[in-house]
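We modelled each protein-ligand pair independently. The example shown here corresponds to the zinc ion entry; the chain sequence is given first, followed by the ligand as SMILES.
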Amino acid sequence: MYPEVYFAKIKQEIKRALGVFYYPSFKINKIFDNKPKFIILVYHSIHPRHPWSISPNKFEEQIKFISSNYPILSLGDFFNFKENSISITFDDGYEDNFYYALPILKKYNLNATFFICSGFITKEIDIAKDGPYKGLRPLTIEMIKEMKKEGMNFGSHTHAHPILSKVSLSQAKEDIHKSKIILESILEEKINLFAYPFGQLNTFNDNIISVLKEEGFQLSCSTIWGNNNKHTNPFILRRIRIDPMDTLRDFKDKIEGKWDFIKWFHYLKWIT
Ligand SMILES: [Zn+2]
């Protein structure tokens, strides 16, 4: 077993255990906060064999559950959702999204938003050179066009996948602009959705948000844990990350907010 997977399994057990302690707070929150929620799920890779990917069977089980229990909306519907709703997103642009996620999304007649790292698909940058997604290949331009035909939405995930707050503002601006131009020429449509690479609180700031607004983006997803309501800043949308070791029970609990204590651990970094 890969050490990453081993540690992830231990972390998962810790999170499940903490969920028990958090349960009373979850119940209390539910009484005082009954505003409609816009829940955004974030996936990366769907693959039957890669150790860090979610298996297609598990993905289908999750999609089946949400499609029969919640309205599934496009990300742009954040601006006019009326009840608890879910939107599905994928980061990076892995080839397996086409082979394994697309057929399942089609089967349930759903759409999702794919945040593409443009330098990855043009093969200028290999974001899967190492790390948990090591060895995974990018979507091709033909696959992206095919997915668009099937009703999928696309957004930018930068060109070179930098930590935007750690490079100079002009570099960040250039990278964001480049990815937007490349994706717009492939898809022949305006790209106005964005997702920050890594996406934690310290990976973007007000200057980056200003650049996104200048470039014509309408909303941006972070990976800050949680759901969204009408008052959430559309440039700091929160998402719920779905992991390979999630059972269907974990998945349901995450969506319902029983794992919302995870947002506190972002400050401690090690657990998420
Ligand atoms: Zn990414």
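DSSP finds nine helices and seven strands in the chain.
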